[in-house]
Amino acid sequence: GNLAHALLLLPPFYFKRPNTCGEQFDYGCKTFFRNILKECEVLGKPVFLYNFPFHTGNSISPQIYGELCHEFPSTIIGIKDSSGDMGLSLSYKKEVPQLGVYVGNDDRALDTLKAGLDGSVTGAASPVVELMVGIQSNYTKNKLQNCETLQNAVIKWGQIRNQFQSDICVAKIAFPLRGVDMKADCLPPLEGITNNETLVEKLKEFINVELLKHTDICNVTTVSTTTTTTDTISKTSSNNTSSNNTSNNQGFSTRTIHAGQPHDPITGSVVPNIVLSSTFAQSSPGIPHGITNVH
Fold first, then answer.
1. Cys-Cys link to 125, which of 87, 106, 195, 292 (CB 3.0-4.6 A)?
2. Which residues contact 240 (CB under 8 A, 6 or more apart)?
């Protein structure tokens, strides 16, 4: 329990909502959540509820969310909604305006911000997280054209993923292409595409061409080693980096800066590494370790 700084709590699954149960099933769901939330309250662990009906078969209603937030005000700190229903996400925000509502839909990251919600939590776009961070960064500066450009790039990334078996498998193949030490393999039944040469070539082309093309407007490339994070896009920290694939026709200033930068003692990297993680140590909720600038 002490290893976790916060929890993401799904509704019960396997037993899908029976049509004949009606309100009794809602009561059962609240009991399920209460039992776990009481334990989290004792442990002092903050919790995000997680609505993902595609996988669980059960959706968290705004009413249940509101009642549980009222009952556990110091434990529940928000909700991640992967339902794909923006109206439902907005209902969560209306029910408890002071808590964060994060949408699990990469293709609607910009729409999420425009709707006044708190942002997106990405899994599938983690290998190209600069794009997601760039959407939020540009949005805060009211550079909407840049946001649209980056959102379109995220959609293109999604179109590549959707041609194959699993977001998880595609991500595991893409991470090593970004220089992350990760095996490009998946356990059954998520397997069978790790040796797909067509996929690998498409991912390489996106990383080396499409991603690199948008580096200037992602706003995560600086010469500073200061870590920049976002609480509204991806819940992922970026150590302000460009793509691993640099070319010899870069500008004079870039070559000069890189020549004067110290390298990472572990990886040898001159450009600070991207931290492709969704979980970071915190001294207390909302106060992460090692982060000097939080946007």
1. 106
2. 220, 221, 222, 224, 225, 226, 227, 228, 272
Long-range contacts of 253-258 (CB under 8 A, 24+ apart): 257/223
Q: Measure the CA–CA gap between 218 and 131, rounded to whole angstroms.
A: 6
What are 106-125's pLDDT values in tens digits?
Answer: 999 999 999 999 999 988 89
**Which residue, chain included where needed, has tokens 């339902």?**
83
Q: Reduce the DSSP state of residue 281 to 3 states and report it.
A: coil
Per-residue pLDDT tens over the stretch 16-35:
665 556 667 788 889 999 99
Report how far residue 245's alpha carbon sits from residue 123's, in angstroms, rounded to the nearest whole number. Answer: 23
C-alpha pair distances (Å), 53 with each of 15, 57, 220, 244 = 12, 5, 34, 37
Beta-carbon contacts of 267 under 8 Å, excluding residues fewer than 6 positions away, are 273
At 97, list the tokens.
Answer: 């305006």
Contact assessment for residue 253 and residue 245, using Cβ atoms and an 8 Å cutoff: no
Backbone φ/ψ region at 6: left (φ over 0), alpha (ψ -120 to 50), beta = beta
Residue 194 contacts residue 172 (beta carbons within 8 Å): yes
- Beta partners for residue 93, in sequence order: none
Q: Rounded CA gap, 94 and 79, in Å? A: 13
Q: What is the CA radius of gyration of the chain?
A: 20
